Amino acid sequence: MVQKMKFEVQEKETVIECLDRIKKDGYTPIKRVEKPIFKEVIKSGSKTYEPISSKIIFEAVKINQ
């Protein structure tokens, strides 16, 4: 049976540290998703959205034998 779990790179954590945490928990990463985070900015009366950062999420699997 394959067990899936999502791991998010935490604030002040590097991608390598997150990958080490995934491995320590006994999982293997299979997919990386990067989601942008926007902030709303009003300029001259019109609303726009500007990217301010991104969130990295790994999908990982653990195979139970």
Estimate the strand proportion: over 45%
Following the backbone from N to C, one meets helices and strands in this order, namely EHEE
Number of helices: 1
Uncertain segments are none
Q: Taking Cα atoms only, what radius of gyration do you get, to the nearest Å?
A: 17 Å
Number of strands: 3
- The end-to-end span amounts to 7 Å
Shape: elongated
Backbone structural class:
alpha+beta
What level of helicity do the residues show?
A: 10-25%
Average predicted confidence as pLDDT? 93
The biggest sheet amounts to: 3 strands, antiparallel
* Order of neighbouring strands in the sheet with most strands: 1-3-2
Kindly describe this structure.
- The chain has about 60 residues and is α+β, with helices and mostly antiparallel strands.
- Helix content is about 15%, strand content about 65%.
- The protein has 1 helix and 3 strands; from the N terminus they run βαββ.
- The protein has one helix at about 15-25, and strands spanning about 1-10, 30-45, 45-65.
- It has a 3-stranded antiparallel sheet with strand order 1-3-2, with helices on one face.
- β2 (about 30-45) and β3 (about 45-65) form a beta hairpin.
- The longest helix has 10 residues, at about 15-25.
